[in-house]
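REQUEST FORM: STRUCTURE PREDICTION
Request ID: SP-0412
Submitted by: Lab K.M.
Chain count: 1
Length (residues): 178
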Amino acid sequence: MSEIKNYRPEGRCQDGLREWCEHIPPTNRDTIIQVGVFAGDATMIFCEYFNKVIDVDTWLDWDVYEAYAKKIYKSPFSNNVLHIRGTSLDAAKMLSIFAKYTGKELSAVYIDANHSAPHPENDIRAYLPLLPDHGYIGGHDYNLPGVKSAVDKIFGRPDKTFQDDSWIVFKEGIHGRL
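STATUS: Completed
RESULT:
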C-alpha cells in the first residue's frame, strides 16, 4: 500500500472541523452522515463529537480505501462507524429507507464529495430531507465555486463559515428558515 497523505493535517483544517462540530449543541450530536470521506481523517474528528458516524464514499482508489479501513478499524471508535461504499445519491436513497423504517433521526450531514456543479447542489438536495427539523447540514470548501453556488442558491448563504472553509446551516422548524 502506498503512503496516503493526511487529508486534514494538524492546524487550521482540524481546528476548523472541530469548531464546526462544537457549533452543534451536545444534545444534538447523535448521528452524522459524512458524504465524501477519503482516508477517514475527518471521520476520526467526527467520532470525538458524535455517537455514530455514517461515512459515504465511492472509494474508487483501493489504496485510499485500505488506508481508511486501517485507520477506522484500528481506532477505539470502530464500533461507532458505519461505512457505505457507493455514490452519494444512491446512499441517500438507502439512508432514506433506513430512517423511514427504523424511526432513527439524524443530527447532521457534512458534505465533502465532488465539488464541481451540479454535484454539491444534488448532494444538498438529496440529504436535506433526511434531517429532522433542528438538524444541521454543512460541508467543506465553501470557497470553491461549485460549493458556494449550491449553498447560496439553496440557503441564500450559510449561517456560519469556519477557518477551514467549512460551512453550516441550521434546519429550523416549519416556521423557520428552511
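NOTES: The longest strand covers residues 52-57.
Reviewed by: T.R.
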